[in-house]
Amino acid sequence: MSSTYFSLHYHIVFGTKNRAPVIDAKWRPRLYDYLGGIVHRLGGFSKRIGGIDDHVHLLVSLKSTHNLADLMRELKKSSSVWVHDTLGEKQFAWQEGYAAFTVSASGLDAVAKYIANQEQHHKMKSFRDELVEMLEKSGVDYNPDYL
After folding, report:
1. What global pTM score does this model have?
2. In what order do the strands lie in the sheet with 45-52?
3. What is the pLDDT of residues 108-127, one digit of tens each?
4. Whole-number Å distance between alpha carbons of 7 and 73
5. 53-76 confidence digits (pLDDT tens)
6. CB neighbourhood size of 81 (10 A)
């Protein structure tokens, strides 16, 4: 085959340090725009970003040359600095780690809708319960002590 073809889509989830509810609704959309800008600057495509006060979800498409760990390091580092410097929220921090799930092209719309509906979704389910459900549905082994 003389060309490279790929369809690499990820649903990424990560939370604030100690799951503190510090992502204020007043500046949350600006944070999502900033996260999307980081993805774009690194050559990826953000399809949907959402969340609530203690975590974010990103639906992104990446190139075959991307390294997910490098993307995550840059997302967390740059967005933390931005929140500190631009918004003056000096205590803001992300938790260590993240969850990332591959998404088929046929599943993109469903995941985008899921991310868009986070406010409503979390009136009934905690972030921890949501994460456990996602990990188990995806067949990911996890240690409950680190959730």
Report:
1. 0.92
2. 45-52, 55-62, 8-15, 99-103
3. 999 999 999 998 989 899 99
4. 22
5. 999 999 999 998 899 999 999 999
6. 11
